[in-house]
Amino acid sequence: MNFKLHLFLLASFILAAAPFAGADTPQQKDYLSAVEADKIRDAETVNERIKLFLTFAGDRLKKLQYELDHPSANRHGDMLNALLNAYIGCVDDAADLIQLGIEKQENIRQGIDLTTSRTKEFLAVLEKLSTDGPDRDLYKENLDDAIEGTRDAMNDAEKAKKKVAPPPVRRKN
Which of 31, 115, 129, 154 could anchor a disulfide with 133, C-beta 3.0 to 4.6 Å? Predict the structure, then answer.
């Protein structure tokens, strides 16, 4: 009888503790691979994280273009929408990091400049897909969201340029 009570208490403890087991580990974004999430985690500065998110967004866009040029036989629409959602997530996270860097008063000029230039490139690709991309009916809603999110990120970066203090001027004596 005593053994059954101990077993019951042990099982109850394990079940009660399960929701708290991963409480201190950050949640991985579902659109990042484990390697990409590790790279983000290991990046030391906000600028590096912004650069990584924009690189990952560019990768998703290239994969989208490849998938459009070489459609898979099964789940083609699902693949296109998943790539667009992953792209949107990466761009949004880069924009969020800019806001975080401003709040923490970090030097994120490099990340802001990179975001401005890369989002212009991304927007050109997305708008081209919007006008003459193949199979637009399959991913139209997500494409519209991607265009809107890219424009928002670009506008946020432009506004952030004004909020961030200019770099110090070195004087020659």
Answer: 129
